[in-house]
Protein 1
Amino acid sequence: MYVKRNYSLWMTVRWSKKSLINGLIYSALIVFLYEISPIPFSLPWQPISVIGVAVAFFLGFKNNSSYDRAWEARKIWGAIVNDSRTFATAILSLPGSEVVFSWKKEMIFRHLAWLVALKHALRKGKSWEHNLPVEKMVFTPAFKEEIKDGLNPEITKYLSPEEWEQIQTYSNFPTQLLKRQSLELEKIHESGALDSYKQVWLHQLISRFYDTQGMSERIKNFPFPRQYASTGLWITYIFCALIPLGLLDIFEQSPAMHYWLTVPFSGIIIWIFFLVDRIGDFSENPFEAGYNDVPISSITRVIEIDLLEMLDEKDIPEPYPVENGFLM
Amino acid sequence: MYVKRNYSLWMTVRWSKKSLINGLIYSALIVFLYEISPIPFSLPWQPISVIGVAVAFFLGFKNNSSYDRAWEARKIWGAIVNDSRTFATAILSLPGSEVVFSWKKEMIFRHLAWLVALKHALRKGKSWEHNLPVEKMVFTPAFKEEIKDGLNPEITKYLSPEEWEQIQTYSNFPTQLLKRQSLELEKIHESGALDSYKQVWLHQLISRFYDTQGMSERIKNFPFPRQYASTGLWITYIFCALIPLGLLDIFEQSPAMHYWLTVPFSGIIIWIFFLVDRIGDFSENPFEAGYNDVPISSITRVIEIDLLEMLDEKDIPEPYPVENGFLM
Amino acid sequence: MYVKRNYSLWMTVRWSKKSLINGLIYSALIVFLYEISPIPFSLPWQPISVIGVAVAFFLGFKNNSSYDRAWEARKIWGAIVNDSRTFATAILSLPGSEVVFSWKKEMIFRHLAWLVALKHALRKGKSWEHNLPVEKMVFTPAFKEEIKDGLNPEITKYLSPEEWEQIQTYSNFPTQLLKRQSLELEKIHESGALDSYKQVWLHQLISRFYDTQGMSERIKNFPFPRQYASTGLWITYIFCALIPLGLLDIFEQSPAMHYWLTVPFSGIIIWIFFLVDRIGDFSENPFEAGYNDVPISSITRVIEIDLLEMLDEKDIPEPYPVENGFLM
Amino acid sequence: MYVKRNYSLWMTVRWSKKSLINGLIYSALIVFLYEISPIPFSLPWQPISVIGVAVAFFLGFKNNSSYDRAWEARKIWGAIVNDSRTFATAILSLPGSEVVFSWKKEMIFRHLAWLVALKHALRKGKSWEHNLPVEKMVFTPAFKEEIKDGLNPEITKYLSPEEWEQIQTYSNFPTQLLKRQSLELEKIHESGALDSYKQVWLHQLISRFYDTQGMSERIKNFPFPRQYASTGLWITYIFCALIPLGLLDIFEQSPAMHYWLTVPFSGIIIWIFFLVDRIGDFSENPFEAGYNDVPISSITRVIEIDLLEMLDEKDIPEPYPVENGFLM
Amino acid sequence: MYVKRNYSLWMTVRWSKKSLINGLIYSALIVFLYEISPIPFSLPWQPISVIGVAVAFFLGFKNNSSYDRAWEARKIWGAIVNDSRTFATAILSLPGSEVVFSWKKEMIFRHLAWLVALKHALRKGKSWEHNLPVEKMVFTPAFKEEIKDGLNPEITKYLSPEEWEQIQTYSNFPTQLLKRQSLELEKIHESGALDSYKQVWLHQLISRFYDTQGMSERIKNFPFPRQYASTGLWITYIFCALIPLGLLDIFEQSPAMHYWLTVPFSGIIIWIFFLVDRIGDFSENPFEAGYNDVPISSITRVIEIDLLEMLDEKDIPEPYPVENGFLM
């Protein structure tokens, strides 16, 4: 997530330079062909403009949906923050005073293990994502390290080696960690230190973690439907392919100008439409370990700080760093 | 669900070739009639373009609604994942230690039976769906097999023959399976191993399964209202019928060109509008056993794996295969 | 609810023939007046087209809202299905084994009485609805019978004559039926067969029925605000009144044509806009006993079948019939 | 709330006659100045039409938000209906049989006192509302009386004089009435007639009333943000100011006509845009004691009837009257 | 939040004068260059108008999202009002009569401490906010004082010096205050004056405060995605840069006029588009201590008054003042 006020125009252009350059080259080519060809193949602008409106609608719909996906992802991780605080508070205050502190700490640590396991699980690449190689994340070196190191160094801070080893025999680590939490609660219940009523409330909190985990996985595993994304892309291509042909027709009336004005003007229109498409495209998958991601690393860190402070731990980690304007 | 980054332009064209070809033929016909007829029946473009905007609005609304239906369907099945994990965890940890493991396993197996029964029930054809014959699902052979084999081989893995036989006497299998789950809980409650409080929480989980089942059935049984779909279709037809007439009027000013330019240009515009309509049309029914479905087979498999691993079963099935880019 | 794939073009035209014919007559009249009048009162098209865009926006908003109303109505009745199944399951499994089966059956029957009472209450006409006389429902004879017969034959299947008589002394039958359910639960609680905890859960289910009943009544009793509906209608009228005047101006340049082309072209545009308005108008009130209603009769039947099967009744009614493509 | 099918065109025009007349006068003035002035200050229409599209977007957004506010207000009051029925049913059936009926009646009466107190509180004027003087509500005489009489005659039907006097020492009557309900429940709990579990459920219902009360106050106290409303208004003004200038340019080509055609045509376009703006403006505040309000008086009456019938009271009030097509 | 009916046109212009002036200067410059340059670099208007439609779409999307953010923020703080009332009522009525009043008062005071701590935490500047220096808040002197004084004077009214000191050792004050509330409840529970069931209900209320706190932090910490905001800004810039070039082309046909008409007309169009962009921009961050904020200071005051009145305190603060039309 970018946290400065605005991307500069220069960054924006550089980021989408491919479509700008291709647009210019393509337009120049059309003008050149038009010049050398005996056939005046220009097209009237009016019908093109109707296509333009339809494309604008489609891109609007796509951007809206992408934004909704990102915003929902952020909401889900917001809920994880809230429920984590509630859960830790509940673990600290609801069981009877005969429950030892070390058990409470273990529960909260296992919760943090669930959290980091989920964070890393959400960043495995998908066939529809951009899958930028991690080496290219040059703007965010600390984040690059985190991705490279993987789950192991983070989870072993919170889980005993035996338990970590056992969890690794399963397919979905977070799911099985939550099951373990539930069995631990039953143990305390059987010992008499947690009545049935409080146990169910704690189980309902675990149910909420299953919910937020599953909702994150849903956004991760169900892309913006590819048929919509592809249609949007192809009609943008067709519309842009028609633009210089339409401009030729308009500029034709003042032949002196059209050699050099059709090309930049056409290039700019093409670039605007591809830019709008690309913005949606790059915001679609909020967990793809890219610069526009929902910042789940820093959210995780916020939860770690709050929960470790609740345990009055001494060794509180720093807030996640902002690197070159990016908070990941 | 297609899981590659984009449908190729070629696939897109092939999939909607009918409207492209028809559009071209129709336009050619109009041009031909215009040539041979003494009446200059072309139409001005400006009013057509207002119709175009209205049609673009309508299609935007239709696409939006279709997308919402698909996304809601995915959310419902995401909730089924979450609740299934919660339910299995609850069955394993909430009843007292005097409850035998075989009962717990039976409960979780009956839950999986409910799941596969629901999956198959959602795939029975509806009069407003596309009802592609299953033999034509050539891109996804494994899925084709699953549909052909039907519910029986899947449900008998999880249900005793007697129970399965009894369930078949009812109209709605999943509904009656959940009632059975509830009666089983009461049995354990009467034996004293599950207090009233935990029983109610488990009953609330069953209530959630009634909810998600009913919500799936709602999307299945209540189509995007046919009056909206039909209106969208007919006004698209009328708009497209007018397009070549309007282009004729524009191209008229340069008669040398209009024989061959009206036809492809008109064909492309017609194709774009029908493509946008068709995308919505094919995304409307997320459970019609077609390529753009919400992938409930693979979601079912994910649940099976998680729950069988919770039971520490040995025989864990493989994740559902991606076939030619499709995950069903 | 229409359940075939699409209304045919012919049905669509016939259903909205009034606006097509009026549009044609009006346009012909304008052309005629223009011919005989010495004043050339045509109007430029460009400003009309801006009005057209504004009207398209407004109709889009109206259609969207109508659709949302229908979809919400369907969701509410989906929730009634889910909660009914949950409630019946709860009645069958939660009370202690000392509770006699006849009481359980009575509770579930009274619930079905609530359901049919609600169904009929939702179909009383409102001053803003279309109020098509029931005799005109020629496509759905079975449904026509149901409406004519009214509540009595349906509710007496599920309620004793004494109770039915007593309920009729109140204004709102469903409300008082639910109160009765609640008092019955207290009776069982006082007898010791239902602990406080389960009683509250059952009361919460009754609370959900109050919710869904009240939500249905809200949609029934609060129309799409008439100020929006009227504004939409009047600006459509004004826009359509201007259309032939604008076309005259365009066709003027080729006088040979405008006698016969202005009229059909104008008629088609007028028809399209009125059709789009009319679709929204006829989908606005999802419980007006019309062809586009949410099919609450068949949903009611689904619940009856499921609940009677749960009671292992012998006399299970048939699913609701589809008549001429309509499921009511 | 208007409850007839449509406002007549005449009512609509009369209601917005100011903008129609002003639009005509302004257009006439421009035409007159254009005639007498040596400077041909007309403007090209094309750029004006782009502004028109932007204005149409903005008004669409404003109307949408206004509608959402009204609809949410209606939902909240729908929830008040549902929760009131649930609460009354709970008061009648959950406490043990040793609780006297007079206490139950007192609780339900105090609930009705909360309801009417909330109704009147929502109708105090706000600085951004239209604040039509109550004397001008000529179409709804019964409603006018209700507003004039104020809270006192309604609340004293349900509250003892002592309690009413005490409540008046606080700022927010409904809030303190609910606190009182909660203390009453504790009293019954301490007497042993309401176990802890049922008490909490009843307290949760009181929490719901705090929710719906607070949600009503939120809509009442937080207007559609004035920066959006004002921007919408000012850009509509600018757009409308430009309209006759643009029309002059178009009509210029046929000078014989433009004296008399620019004026009415321009007036109609101006009127349409102001009408669309005004509709949103007048639907923005659903509790401003105006004709387009959410009908909270009649909803209150519905609740009174249902609850008094549950108590088997003899003196049931009549449903709220529809006056001249308005239900308030 | 502005609470008068409309910002005056003058205020609106003054607030956005920068874009109006820049637009005029830029347009004048273009006209000047066009005059002195031998190259006729004007551009056709039609393609510019398609860009205009795309920009209008994008700004519509941006304004919509900004509004949704503000409205959600208001909803969250509405929920804080409701839950605070419920919580205070619960503290006063649910614990047994052996609990001393001073403990109840302490709990409610600590809740108010949480509230003011949250209010101040939400007003720390963010890198993407406008961060208007507090000295410039000349219209709202009382609010300026509040911001300058900071948290300390407000929180010490509700928290003992020792507790306040201890809370300051943590990163997130509100989080740790809620944990403290939960531990206090356990203390009362262990003393026997609050049964397990009521304790869990009170813990659920604390969970709701964690939710609303976290939701406020989510809106505060997750801006409207900067990639969308920047794209919107840059395409508005490009569109506006093209406007005078397009107008030149149109006015060219009547050269006598274009010196002085292109400039103001172009300036007005540029200003409208930047105004619409700016409105969204300034409504995006509802907690940035600016004039368009959600009025959390006055909401806090409302809660303080209600809760102190519930405690029958003598020293009730005044409602928050409206200063120059602003309620903060």
Protein 2
Amino acid sequence: MPSGEDDLIARYFKPLATDPGALGLVDDAAVLAASRDDLVLTTDAIVEGVHYLPGDPPRAIARKALRVNLSDLAAKGATPAGFLLTLALRSADERFLAPFAQALGEDAALFDCPLLGGDTVSTPGPMMISITAIGRVPPGRMVRRNTLCAGDRILVTGTIGDSALGLDLLQGANADISDEHRAFLIDRYRVPQPRLALAQAIRDHAGAAMDVSDGLAGDLAKMCAASGVTAILDAAAVPLSAAAQAMISGEPAKLARVLGGGDDYELLCGVAAQQLDPFLAAAQRIGVSVSVIGSAEAGTGAPRWRDAEHRDIALSGLSYSHF
Amino acid sequence: MPSGEDDLIARYFKPLATDPGALGLVDDAAVLAASRDDLVLTTDAIVEGVHYLPGDPPRAIARKALRVNLSDLAAKGATPAGFLLTLALRSADERFLAPFAQALGEDAALFDCPLLGGDTVSTPGPMMISITAIGRVPPGRMVRRNTLCAGDRILVTGTIGDSALGLDLLQGANADISDEHRAFLIDRYRVPQPRLALAQAIRDHAGAAMDVSDGLAGDLAKMCAASGVTAILDAAAVPLSAAAQAMISGEPAKLARVLGGGDDYELLCGVAAQQLDPFLAAAQRIGVSVSVIGSAEAGTGAPRWRDAEHRDIALSGLSYSHF
């Protein structure tokens, strides 16, 4: 006596449940066999109209939902073990579900993070996708946010600000940039690139780490506050893509948007001086760019940002908050 | 530079994060230390207007959100380890959040299931609470849904149908019952009683188990289908509360509502003949009522329900489905 909900799960999501612990999604729970690893648990939800736009492609929505969670696992130095999916839908629309599930399955395979279970519910409101991702680290080795030390160099992966600028473009901002740059920035907004390839290097060499999801400046301030230190940052050292450079070149005021905008899903970490070279070497081997943007210092004030002439820059509204 | 979201988390939810693995909710992830147990993972979401009514008390909403997940852990024979909370809110309304968080904390303490982490997001739509609960079982001992065997006696805990009748009352159904019975049924709808006290007895004696969330008849049909067996059930043996008996006494047609309605959050299990007495004895020691309602049989048809005169009863629309 299968219900519509069970049909939907069997049709779209059972093919993703490749792990034996998922029990083919016929049970109400999944099982993760005992192991010698600590488990890292993280959960992030994305809401239509808040974290993505109603017109975003279903494939991109699926990828964003999973990848924002994988980004957290990467920042903790964890290897993915699997994920649970809660999907709140207005209707069981095949035109949405088929490409959504397909892309989710492709990403689950790409990042070796199988679907373990979930819940599918109806909602009269905006669609919402909540994912809980589970990762593994050797005992005691999860990298924390609140362990940045005075003297640590502060680094970020990839490039910063692309996603916020991409969102601006989707929302109608004018920019005298090429179609290629425009497409690049929009793609950066829609499809985060979780830096899982760097997870082991983070675990081996970083003293503290988090992913940049609410804006670099604000997230760095949170890391400093949680760690009881402050920091001095070199705004000119923040890595920018060619597309971002093109978009802000005419408007230096947009630097605040780059440093304060959200959805970067790059990694921010503190690395002790003696670990810097091995970390940079590991990142180079892996092929992920990392940039030193400043240093942590003793003290408790807000991090200070300086321009190329070492003058303080005032930044306001630096972090995205839902409330 | 704390944001409104961080303030909200610190004020309302940090007090619930009593487990060291929650890291005081200052990190993006929680950590569960390696152990010799298998981990059982389950996730269930509740949506305003779908799983609860907009006028339901915040304390009841909190309890329902957690307890529907704890009910799944109980059915799997698992002991709670903790939970992750995703909260999608229209606004950070203290009148909602303060009692919601307080009741959630009380239940977390009552069931020894601490808050490990979560995500708080804004939504323009109905409120949604998605919880992922994690439990522990000795290796290989999670009780499954698809392992019901021909010959197993089929049992349920507590009483069935109260919640569906309570929802009917909240939605304006007429019933010539006492105020006390009315309050009992409404409370059963609003605040499930997860049968965690019975988890170890389920693990020790049940061959298959699930919780009854989408209606007893439909959930039993799912268990039979997943297990490749059928069943014969005695409708008169289904345990009814005095309040439910009072409400359906004048309208026998409401039996279908009792067997088909959802939100019971009782446990449904299959117990082999030689395990029946020890299981009943364990339940009695614990003080949870359990009732034998039928037996599993070889075959693949839909379970057959019989009345007190052993005549077949036709039941339709037996399971709640979101789509």
